[in-house]
């Protein structure tokens, strides 16, 4: 366990929730850790989210995950695409998002769909639905980086596993992410989504959304 882990959890999640997130208060937003430490803290949080986030409300988790993943709320997520952090540490962090879906989103999200305006009153559905829209993890600007394919495939591995969730909110989130990464990985995205449509009984709404993801036409 990282030495500052419980301090990190308190900093990120143990906050009063308001319409405007606490992270926009510059004095409160900074957490004193270098990029490697932050990457490890993110990983440990997601790998243990089922038990360690249990004490926090869905609203607190929504805000906390926005702080981690949404680059308009903080710069935290950029450590996961920073060359200053060893690739194996960043890849483990990305892989830990599988556990976020399984142990946090699946049991805590309402089984509703955001793209047809069903988000309702459960705040954690917001970050689940928009995770790959607000995060830079599904878009890498460098066109010829040797890491590019490795990291894109790591993200797609996460999304492919999330497609097997019993919670349609998680499935929609995965399709949303696949739609955003489609232009960079057309063949892999087409394969993953096509296999999803073949293997399970899919609602009309998710079938339509999956076909849009194959075309990179999601919102």
Which SSEs are present, and which pair or pack?
Elements: H1 5-13, H2 26-29, H3 35-47, H4 49-52, H5 58-69, H6 87-95, H7 97-108, H8 124-134, H9 148-162, H10 168-181, H11 186-199, H12 204-214
Mind explaining what this structure looks like?
The chain is mainly α and 219 residues long. It has one domain. The protein is built from twelve helices and no strands. The model has no long low-confidence stretch (mean pLDDT 92).
Number of strands: 0
Provide the succession of SSEs.
HHHHHHHHHHHH
- Percent of residues in helices: 55-70%
Low-confidence stretches: none
Characterize this entry briefly.
Helix content is 58%, strand content 0%. The protein is mostly helical and 219 residues long.
Name a few traits of the molecule.
globular; 12 helices; 219 residues; mainly alpha; single chain
